[in-house]
């Protein structure tokens, strides 16, 4: 085994550990932020400021009975949560999570090694991420169809509708920045925005940025578009029959996808991990990602749900024509 | 070495999954194995360095099979096994012989490796998407445009066929207009 492979395996393990922890911590942050916006206190009882609530929830999830309904298709029913969780982490493989850094010389063995903070810098990075995240929607679809429950079937029907609606908008909205940068690699996106705030792609592509954010919210099932598990209409949609750890895997997948969308928005539109004035790049990058994560929670507190027909209307009749017009204008500008 | 292991793993998995697609009586198993087989085929593209085509395979077939699931959901009870209607034996024989003939022809090509060559070999000076773009917009421009027009026609046809009453909202209409009540 050569050094590259060992390094890759270490990186994979670190990303898995940290992002899973973030997914757990995200639930706490979400409850606290929602509570703050709704003038409540949120979790307070377990530990200081309810911080140990994550541990308590974790213990509860791990020790709960794992129920499989009688008429369900057992194999597909057990497979579905794995798809959601696995694809969410596979998508992370092509994401830059940090600036390239050098390990200090003082450390033994590995000192002085230059570490690019991306597991695999494939030259079609952003398409790969979007494709893998799209296949993650098979999790909710199969879960709903396998559980022999009518709410589940409605949930998976909504999954198909939502997927076919937003996927076009995601692809088309990202296409315009791709045309400007001329590459599909996220590293190239970052390197194209080295010249301070003025060179961020968000100023050249404001329409594409907003379209991407809206489609990203639909992709991660966040609130204006969480048709799949809309509790007031269809109980819990595709997760109605799930309990314990399998339900937790859906949750981890959803929060990982939120982190992924935040990172894509930060790298593609908001300057990536470049240094700005005196702030070093890694700190700024984390701040950007945290901001986009916070934005998702903020929107959840501020906006009501939409109906499925409203979402289809929005995606096909408003967002998609806007995206096409945006691409046309970008193309004309690039040609001139 | 890793490439070979991955190739044989992908081959076995893909063939196995597509066999399940053909032989399974359960719609859910058939469609799930079809979807996973399509995703695994993308793995072959990644193995030979055609990253772009691999991702296109992934994106296109994930969406296409998802639409198939939607129809499966509407037509069948997916948690139960499906009883297939027995068709006439003549058709089974005709299809079987045709498939056997096709397989013979396909494997016959591999016996003479000189007969197989790349009409547009990989150009290492270009990245993947550039190479695909060059091939599509120079040598295969006419088929590409014809395919685009055919897809456009199919799309307009679909909208015309399905969208006859689209200006009236079914949500706002009275129940009786959609489904007349039974006369008691």
What does the model show?
The complex is a heterodimer of chains A (336) and B (184). Chain A is mainly α and 336 residues long. Chain A contains 13 helices and two strands. Chain A has one domain (3-335). Helices cover 65% and strands 1% of the residues of chain A. A two-stranded antiparallel sheet of chain A has the order 1-2. In chain A, helix 1 crosses helix 11, helix 3 (74-91) packs antiparallel against helix 4 and helix 5 (138-146) runs antiparallel to helix 6. The mean pLDDT of chain A is 83. In chain B, 70% of the residues lie in helices and 0% in strands. In chain B, helix 1 (2-23) packs antiparallel against helix 2 and helix 2 runs antiparallel to helix 3. The mean pLDDT of chain B is 81. At the A-B interface, helix 3, helix 4, helix 5 and helix 6 of A face helix 2 and helix 3 of B.
Summarize this structure briefly.
Chain A has 336 residues and is mainly alpha-helical. Chain A has helices at residues 3-37, 53-63, 74-91, 125-135, 138-146, 150-181, 186-191, 201-204, 206-219, 231-234, 244-268, 281-302, 308-335; strands at residues 101-102, 114-115. Chain A has one domain (3-335).
What are the main properties of this structure?
heterodimer, A: 336 residues, mainly alpha, 13 helices, 65% helix, 1% strand, globular, B: 184 residues, Four Helix Bundle (Hemerythrin (Met), subunit A), 7 helices, extended
């Amino acid at each position: 085994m050569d050094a590259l492979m060992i390094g890759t395996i270490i990186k994979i393990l670190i990303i898995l550990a940290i992002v899973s922890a973030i997914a757990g911590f995200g639930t706490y942050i979400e409850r606290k932020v929602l509570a703050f916006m709704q003038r409540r206190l949120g979790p307070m009882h377990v530990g200081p400021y309810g911080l140990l609530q994550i541990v308590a929830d974790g213990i509860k999830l791990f020790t709960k009975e794992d129920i499989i309904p009688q008429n369900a298709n057992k194999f597909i029913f057990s497979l579905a949560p794995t798809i959601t969780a696995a694809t969410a982490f596979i998508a992370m493989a092509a994401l830059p999570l940090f600036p390239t850094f050098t390990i200090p010389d003082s450390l033994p063995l590995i000192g002085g090694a230059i570490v690019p903070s991306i597991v695999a810098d494939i030259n079609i990075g952003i398409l790969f991420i979007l494709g893998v995240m799209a296949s993650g929607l098979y999790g909710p679809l199969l879960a709903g169809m396998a559980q022999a429950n009518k709410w589940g079937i409605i949930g998976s029907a909504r999954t198909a509708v939502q997927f076919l609606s937003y996927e076009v908008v995601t692809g088309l909205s990202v296409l315009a920045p791709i045309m400007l940068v001329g590459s599909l690699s996220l590293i190239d996106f970052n390197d194209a925005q080295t010249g301070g705030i003025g060179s961020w792609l968000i100023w050249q592509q404001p329409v594409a940025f907003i379209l991407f954010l809206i489609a990203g919210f639909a992709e991660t099932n966040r609130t204006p578009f969480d048709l799949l598990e809309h509790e007031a209409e269809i109980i819990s949609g595709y997760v109605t029959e799930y309990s314990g750890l399998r339900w937790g895997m859906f949750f981890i997948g959803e929060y990982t996808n939120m982190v992924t969308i935040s990172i894509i928005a930060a790298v593609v539109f908001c300057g990536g991990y470049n240094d700005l004035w005196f702030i070093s790049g890694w700190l700024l990058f984390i701040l950007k990602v945290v901001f986009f994560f916070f934005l998702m929670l903020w929107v959840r507190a501020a906006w009501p749900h939409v109906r499925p027909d409203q979402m289809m209307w929005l995606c096909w009749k408003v967002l998609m024509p806007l995206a096409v017009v945006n691409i046309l204008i970008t193309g004309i500008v690039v040609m001139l | 070495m890793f490439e070979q292991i991955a190739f044989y793993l992908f081959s076995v998995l893909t063939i196995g999954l597509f066999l399940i697609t053909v032989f399974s009586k359960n719609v859910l198993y058939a469609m799930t194995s079809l979807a996973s087989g399509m995703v695994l085929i993308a793995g072959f593209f990644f193995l030979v360095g055609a990253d772009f085509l691999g991702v296109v395979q992934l994106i296109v077939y994930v969406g296409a099979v998802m639409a198939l699931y939607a129809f499966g959901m509407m037509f069948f009870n997916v948690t139960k096994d499906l009883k297939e209607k027995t068709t006439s034996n003549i058709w089974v024989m005709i299809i079987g012989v045709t498939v056997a003939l096709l397989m013979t022809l396909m494997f016959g090509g591999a016996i003479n490796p000189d007969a197989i060559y790349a009409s547009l070999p990989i150009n290492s000076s270009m990245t993947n998407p550039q190479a695909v773009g060059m091939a599509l917009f120079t040598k295969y421009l006419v088929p590409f445009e014809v395919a685009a027009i055919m897809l456009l026609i199919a799309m307009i046809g679909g909208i015309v066929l399905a969208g006859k009453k689209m200006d009236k909202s079914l949500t706002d209409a009275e129940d009786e207009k959609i489904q007349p009540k039974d006369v008691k």
